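Running this now, will post back.
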Amino acid sequence: MIASLRLGGGRPAHVLLSIEDYRTLAGGNVSLIDLLAMPGSADIDFEPPPLEGRFSVPADLS
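Update: finished.
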């Protein structure tokens, strides 16, 4: 499984794996969309405060 182990400061710092071994350790082929989906997020109340300062000035689109 481990093809190469590099030490940095006397501790393991880098490990070189085959892509198959990496995917096994990383949990398979999960898409980024699945990771960011946040099931149940509709139940979260989110009301950010109004912006103040230079970011609250409307853009000049003329």
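Residues 1-29 form one domain. More later if anyone needs it.
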